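Support request, please re-run this one:
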Amino acid sequence: MVRRWGYLFGAIDLAGPDIVTDASWKMSEAAGEGWQEPGFDDAKWSVATAHPLSAFGDGSWTWLWPRGFRIFPGRMERIWNASIFPEEKGYQETLYFRRDFRVSR
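Re-run finished. Output below.
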């Protein structure tokens, strides 16, 4: 049996601190009008569940990079809702994630 799971896993590499996926991100099953805008009220959104990298046997993905290979920041985490496998109760195929951050020039 092949197990497939859903998750968001990423980093934005900036000159300052990197923006990484972790449990501080918010998630929802429905996007809502304006959900990508800075002033959107996400107070009713849930907190994402972090799923540790060590729980999966595909650690090689932590160093894939479009322009070659590099080590991603170690603190980056896979996030989804609490149910990460499709056969689990509560699993959602599509989720929306957001986090507020500022990029300085």
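Residues 1-100 form one domain. The chain has no helices and nine strands.
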